[in-house]
Amino acid sequence: MVSFTLPAFLCVAVLSSMTLAGTEICQGPCIEGWVHHDQRCFHYCPKMLSWIDAERRCVSIGGNLASEHTLGDHDFLKKLQMRTGEKHPFWIGLSYMRKEATWIWSDGTKMDFKKWNYGEPKSSGGKEHCVLSNWGAGKAWKNVSCHRRYPFVCSKRLH
Description:
It is built from three helices and eight strands, in the order H-E-E-H-E-H-E-E-E-E-E. The chain has helices spanning about 5-15, 50-60, 70-80; strands spanning about 35, 40-50, 65, 90-95, 100-105, 130-135, 140-145, 150-155.
């Protein structure tokens, strides 16, 4: 006999009349409050934190700020946030490491995808080392000061 958690059952029931593309917002194998997408679980947090405080919060719950490796990941994160009714930019796990002179993901994964807004990343006197997603008309990435406060998305790999 197969058993489902109530949130997973309700998600499947509600989405059963929709196209399969809609199932990407189901909880799937993730714990309550997290949503499954492409071998990872994601959690949108509306709390406004600095980039480092958002990363610390994600680490404290077993993950990191989310990384984007495909256009599908990028679109998924925007849809995840839209479920909350919010449309603000949000932190992702990309930051600039001066010593290495490169952009890196906080989860240690390779930067194999880029979704910068036109004219980004900007070099603003070396003060904009953290990245927001869902910024501006392009709804893409923008580098800003890490001390600013925004909501964020955490992710963790399924084991």
